[in-house]
Amino acid sequence: MKNFLTIIAALLLASAVQAADFKIGYVDVHTAVEKSTIGKKAKDEMKKEGEKKQKELDKKKADLDKMNEDIEKKKSLLSEDALQKRGQELQMEVAKFRETVQKAQLELQKKENELLEPIVKKVKVVIEKIAKDKGFGMVIRSNANDQMVIYSASEYDLTDEVVAALEKEK
Fold first, then answer.
1. What angle do CA 37, 41, 42 make, to 5 degrees?
2. Are 61 and 53 in contact (CB under 8 A)?
3. Is 158:26 a contact under the CB 8 Å cutoff?
4. Exposed, middle or buried, 139 (CB in 10 Å: 0-12/13-18/19+)?
5. Is residue 142 part of a domain?
6. Is residue 1 part of a domain?
7. CB of 32 within 8 A of CB of 166?
8. Residue 103 lies in a domain
């Protein structure tokens, strides 16, 4: 029994020593991507794409507004059947416009995913290298919105190092 307790005590002591050597770091991946040149480039490309889509949507919305104004102006001159027909046409155009808006949003999401996927892969490789070089046993993702990391000493924040490493890799 005494040997068993000695073995348990030795295992507990070994676990405590290992835990003392185990370092956990964290990275705000969103911030790292935003601060990096490749992230800024992707953001600029998304902004241009978004502005292009918005211009197209604004033009279609203006056409719808004009169509609605035209119906309102001619309301008293049109027969009830003609007014109803134009109202239905407007509703169909509004439905098409909503579909176009949804399609544009999906296309923008797809484009964003296409742009970010290789960047996130690169960030992951950089994080792994930094973690191994600095002896971190684990690196967790953090960001201001998640509050996954409530407190940590700044020495465990690897975000700036990740940005710097990304800049070197160009």
1. 120
2. no
3. yes
4. buried
5. yes
6. no
7. yes
8. yes
